[in-house]
Amino acid sequence: MKTSLTRRQALKAGTLAASAAFVNLPSLFAKSPSYNAEFLSMTDEERAFYYFEGQEGVKARLFANENPFGPSEKAIAAITNSLKDSYMYPFDERAELQRKIAAYEGVSEDHILLGAGSTQLLMAAGVAFGMKGGEIVISHPTFDSLPKYAEGVGGKLVKVDVDSGLKQQLGKMADAVSSKTSLVYSVNPMNPTGTQVSGKEMRDFCNSVSDRAPVFVDEAYIDYHPEGLKASTISCVQQGKNVIVCKTFSKVHGFAGLRVGYCVAKPDLLAKMKPFSTGGFDLSRPAVLAATASVDDKAFLSMSVQQTEESKQLLYKGLRAVGASLIPSFTNFAMFPIDMNGSTFLSRMKEKGVLVRSWNFKNQDWCRVSIGRKDEMEAFNKALAQVV
Q: Does the first or last residue of the chain, that is N or C, have fewer Cβ atoms within 10 Å of its Cβ?
């Protein structure tokens, strides 16, 4: 009885601490002019464009880097079987998922921090390392969730432009690290560019830089890397380096609507993030059991990567047909320059039933198109030929 009470008290104390941190977040973000009340990477205009006007007549939903080939049959079966017990919190099941992920990544369980997708974990890191004016070195452009959250609490961003091939310049990022640097943030393979650096380059970068500042590596697309999981920086964590590796089930596992992700790092680094994280308490029972089933479903993951590659080659064919510059992609999306205003391009593509994203970088508009099913890529290619 005494032990049970102690555990209950500890859980209550931890929940109260986490709640207090979240209660304070709105006021913290409000101090920054870049505060985004929706905590999303999209602008309000983009959200209205994609969501608020409805999606009747959409032939290809290619703006969110979703994986239309998942979840796996094993994950779907786990979800179906879990529904009758969904009135129960998944306490034991969540612990089992954490154990399984730890074994998969070759670390102890205290090296794993669960979250509802990677976005919630990016927020926790952005807040934890951006507070009190912390400087965060990033590639530019990059996936901007973590940087936005950092700016929202007063953090400073040190931006290092990608090179002419849209690859992040790790050498220049290392040179940008100073005594003021609280975190270095890298995405490999990159979003939104789709480019990659080799596993050795990234590990060498982490090993050299992490002695001066923690390095956060977002590996959302690591399964699509030409080296596969061999390109991961998990070995840096295993060796005790100050490296945080973030992964998500949203891409190759097809869990964008289920929301499961995790960070791998030393316990002392995770401790900095935990006050701004739920620790996975917000994961639903169906999502937890689905992820547990999907973690090592190698046959499905291999199929998912292969199907994405086949659709990507179909996209490349369409881009070549209209003379578009082709930036080789190592993700489930691709980016290419467009010769018109980005908003105009999006609207004209939407008229054809195709939804994509656009960016402007150094006075050049770019389109980012997600890799969908083959019928979706054919719809994209047809629309592109009519629009450009």
A: N
pTM of the entire structure? 0.88
The closest of 118, 122, 186 to 150, measured between CA atoms, is 122
Torsion, CA 240, CA 243, CA 244, CA 250, rounded to 10: -110
Cα separation, 296 vs 227, in Å, equals 18
DSSP H/E element including 244: strand 243-248
Q: Which residues contact 314 (CB under 8 A, 6 or more apart)?
A: 374, 377, 378, 381
CB atoms closer than 10 angstroms to residue 24: 14
Burial of 335 (0-12, 13-18, 19+ CB in 10 A): buried
Q: What residues are paired with 346 via a beta bridge?
A: none
Question: Residue 242 CA to chain centroid, in angstroms?
Answer: 20
Taking only the tens place, the pLDDT of each residue in 304-330 is 999 999 999 999 999 999 999 989 999
Residue with tokens 């080789």: 328
> Around 372, how many Cα atoms within 13 Å sit in the side-chain half-sphere?
19
**Structural tokens at position 12:** 């209550």
One DSSP character per residue, 171-240 reads HHHHHH--TTEEEEEEESS-TTT-----HHHHHHHHHHHTTTS-EEEE-TTGGGSTTGGGG-SHHHHHTT
> In the chain, what is the greatest distance between 2 CA atoms, to the nearest angstrom?
73
Order the strands of the 135-140 sheet from edge to edge.
112-115, 261-264, 243-248, 215-218, 181-187, 135-140, 156-161
The predicted-structure confidence for 6-33, as pLDDT tens digits, reads as follows 434 434 444 444 444 443 454 444 444 3
* Averaged confidence pLDDT in the chain: 89
Q: Compute the distance between CA of residue 302 and CA of residue 232 in angstroms, rounded to an integer.
A: 17
pLDDT category of residue 48 using cuts at 50, 70 and 90? low
